[in-house]
């Protein structure tokens, strides 16, 4: 009987405890309701608007985080198409994938190079017209031939599988690699400069977009200054890591190059200028003549925030080699707003590796 009595007392105390908690919760709720009733109508409207804004911002934040994640997953998957191979595997891969053939034009042999067809649906081989402006047949009066480096070991051991990548997106024109900041992405060229601001390489709508070449320029990289654009993502993806170059004075000793891998070969560009400028900067100027290009390059050298890179290029130019190679300019937004500033990274073609 005593045990039963103690159990009854314990149950009674538990019921009373639960009732007290329930009364406290009701009292707090009534207090909030009473407080809400005392708020003026105008303040109630403002409060509702603030709650709606907060909810909307939360939804956008969740969506942005999801897009960041999806983009990272997609581009990480694309990295598998650039897996490093052993020398033997690399030689077999290059033999099967590269269709470009190089020969002495004096022997009357036909030179072939890969290019994207006008329908942009597949890579084909096309005879090169010596009068056309491409890197393998430039007019010596305007631009010199690129220096050919036959040693594949002098270039990073990436091997983009362009055949497989082109099956995913036929707008593919190159693969960009910057060793010093570990930046590695495919480069596309659309019909305009808007589509790939909001679409990934796999054609998924995403704020991360894709790295893309200016739609008005030659995909063969034969223009004096070719522009490549990408978003400055807050998570460091895409061109989000380019700004590191502004604060890396020693990268000119470590790895002062970026590389563009194409079906035709590997192009090595020496970084000679990095700086920030306004959205309407003259650095967006597309050069048409040798004189315009020299003025453009000199202006970029003067603006450079990385003095070591600019000084090295000035030293090479003062060597009087007469070499007027093409440049590639990497561009992204920077600052506290998309309209604040633009970051420019200039690189001049130094040499090229081409399969024989």
Please explain how this structure is put together.
Strand 3 and strand 4 form a beta hairpin. The model is unreliable at 85-91 and 93-142 (pLDDT under 50). The chain has helices at 2-38, 41-78, 87-97, 162-168, 251-254, 290-303, 307-318; strands spanning 112-116, 123-127, 172-178, 183-188, 211-213, 225-229, 257-261, 266-277, 327-334, 341-353. The protein is elongated, with a radius of gyration of 30 Å. The termini are far apart. The strands form two sheets. Strands 3-4-5-6-9-10-8-7 form an eight-stranded mixed barrel. It has a two-stranded antiparallel ribbon with strand order 1-2. With 356 residues, it is an alpha+beta fold. It has seven helices and ten strands.
Mean pLDDT across all residues, rounded? 78
Give start-end ranges of low-pLDDT stretches. Answer: 85-91, 93-142
Biggest beta sheet summary: 8 strands, mixed, barrel
Q: Report the C-alpha radius of gyration, rounded.
A: 30 Å
Q: Which structural category do the helix and sheet elements fall into?
A: alpha+beta
Q: Identify the quaternary structure here.
A: single chain
